[in-house]
Amino acid sequence: METLMVGLKRKPFHGRQLHAWIHRHGATSFDEMTDLAKDLRVELADRWTIGLPKIVEQVTGEGQDSATKFLFELADGERVEAVYIPADDRVTVCLSSQVGCAFGCTFCATGLLGLKRNMTSAEIVGTFLAIRAWAPKRISNVVFMGMGEPLANLKEVMASFDVLTDPDGIGLSHRKVTLSTVGLPAKIRELADYPYPPKLVFSIASPRDEQRKRVLPVAGRFSLSEMHDALSDYAEKTKHWITIALLVADGLNDSLEDARMLHKWIGNLPAKVNLLRYNEAAGNFRRADEEAMERFAAELARLGRTVVLRRSRGRDISAACGQLAARSLNIEGVKK
Ligand code: SF4
After folding, report:
1. Atom of ligand 1 nearest to the CA of 98
2. What domains are there in the chain, each with its CATH number?
3. Left if phi > 0, otherwise alpha if psi is -120 to 50, otherwise beta: which for 205?
């Protein structure tokens, strides 16, 4: 924005003012920027527009501290989702990074949409700002766990990361932004070279290569051994622990043998395990039962792993990624 102002033959600090108005104060028109000269505001408004993506649907779950899911329409009419998730100690916003997704993971509603296009960093930040403008509580965390594979749109995702974490703008802590991936080894190594690499969640799907290939037809082409090497490099370079997320489905990956194989695969990777219960909204898998989840978690704990059983949140608001967008397009296989 400094460069933009210099291009207009103005002082660079006007760029910093513009940045603060948009990202810190959430201004959605140049008229609000009262410390910019009137003629500059008119010049800016003649050349550019600022604004937030349109919220076309908003659903809040039942009960106190429920998640709220948003369906946004972007300037070209494409639709993406984001979710506001309040908890006792944090408020997280889950953001999308692509319109649809090319990876076609069989448990995922977004996979059914196919990839339409990448989101720009401005669109990603716009969805955050639109939720912040509505949010009853201060947002402390961001996860890229919505529609799309963030590592497949790394440049724009990391440009949005810079804006989200700029202390003169939105000001989130670097340590409070997390990327979730189904696994692209080369991109994981590329991410490690950024000045502030985010925390990483690796969605493993299964500790068995063959099964993983069936569940993740695209990402499963990279073997678990390749993934282990890339994640070990990432952990070593960034000094971050990796979170291994396993979406557990009945009869697919919920046995004690699966738990032991997962433990063996993790080996000496500095990692903790998040177990999530399959949401039963897309694909052909069945929701794992509570007891199987607990047995699985207990076995990992017995083997010395740090394991968290994630509470299933947002089942009543179609919170798994892509469900709202798929529903709005009447995509087959997604429950109404
Ligand atoms: Fe894409 Fe992620 Fe869904 Fe897989 S799980 S299809 S990578 S959005």
Report:
1. 8
2. 1-50 (1.10.150.530), 53-328 (3.20.20.70)
3. left
